[in-house]
Amino acid sequence: IFTYWLFSELHLDYMVIEVGLGGRLDPTNVMTRSDKVCVITDIGFDHTEILGNTLASIAAEKAGIIAESSDVVMYEQSNEVMLAVEKAIVANNATLTLIQGDVDVKNLQKLPLFQQRNCQLAKRAVEIRLHLDNRAGLSTAAFTRSLDITIPGRFEVISKDGVTIILDSAHNPQKIGSLVDAVKNMYTNRSMIYVVSFGVNKRQSIVEMLQTVKSCGAGRLITTQFTLDASESHQAISADDIWLVAQQVGYPATASLTDPIPALTAAVMYANVYTALIVATRSFSLVSNLRGLL
User: Fold this and answer.
1) Chain-centre distance for alpha carbon 274
2) What is the secondary structure of the chain as a DSSP string?
3) Does the pLDDT at position 143 exceed 60?
4) What is the C-alpha R_g of the chain?
5) Residue 75: what pLDDT?
6) Paired strand residues for 254
7) Residue 48's closest CA among 200, 197, 201?
8) Which candidate, 223, 190, 230, 226, places its Cα nearest to that of 209?
9) CA dihedral in degrees (160, 166, 170, 176; nearest 10)?
10) How many CA atoms lie within 13 Å of 161's alpha carbon, on the beta-carbon side?
């Protein structure tokens, strides 16, 4: 509530508010204005202990941001997702704008695949917002400039000692899959070394995510654990425990290093030997640990 009050005091023209968890019951979801533009990104399994363990239940929670007579922008998704969203749209007399098929905007190819999709969503949402206010549309120059924005910890590419390092805080199986696809698409035929850590709240999905990483052909996996202070529900799983799971899924070459800094140092050493790139992922906390060093 204080955030909205502060933004009002600052007389902002527009606010972009990201939902923290779900939507229907999230603290950000107190705005009921009919001119709200609701953006729903690709829905996957995350926070299932709160949002439900089906895509339909998760979609219903996320569709809770839809207000009376508001606009909704999203990609066409699975039937169960669309049914849940469309139910909320009908109940609220909202207007749905669907983006279908692949994106084809010039210069968008410089972004990883999942950011291409999100960028297209953002562009359409801005266009709708400007139209509602009878303002001119987004200029080509402004949109082109936006493509050069680097989002910290989101497919952030950094060079260290001649090695390419990608930092990405993919934190569920869906996002890990999108990250793996993007890496393979942008770095064809490159050897890969993954540095990973997991929080205890993701214990149930470790096997699935490590299998996804293994399927991309990554030649080496280094397990570690983040060191940032966290609440009891967000502590790190030990590097050795993750290593054991990696062995169970048949990962060919792994190492376990508790401290993320030596883990990154070892990855750089391997990368120089095998001419590989490094992907550090699976935890906002791990990315924060490593980004400060880099």
Assistant:
1) 29
2) -HHHHHHHHTT-S------SSSSTT-TTTT---TTPEEEE------SHHHH-SSHHHHHHHHGGGPPTT-EEEEE---HHHHHHHHHHHHHTT-EEEEE-S----TTGGGS-HHHHHHHHHHHHHHHHHHHHTT-PPPPHHHHHHHTT---TTSSEEEEETTEEEEEE---SHHHHHHHHHHHHHHSTT-EEEEEE--BGGGGGGHHHHHHHHHHTT-SEEEE----S---GGGPBPPHHHHHHHHHHTT-SSEEE-SSHHHHHHHHHHHHHHHTEEEEEES-HHHHHHHHHH-
3) yes
4) 21
5) 92
6) 221
7) 201
8) 223
9) -130
10) 16
**Residue recorded with tokens 């910890």:** 153
Q: Are 170 and 203 in contact (CB under 8 A)?
A: no
Mean pLDDT confidence for 77-88: 93
Determine the pLDDT at residue 218.
67
Neighbours of 132 (CB within 10 A): 13
- Among the residue ranges 9-18, 179-188, 191-200, 213-222, the one predicted with the least confidence is 213-222
For residues 262, 267, 272, 276, the Cα torsion angle rounded to the nearest 10 degrees is: -170
Q: 39 pLDDT exceeds 90?
A: yes
The mean pLDDT value for 12-26 works out to: 89
Whether residue 38 has pLDDT greater than 90: yes
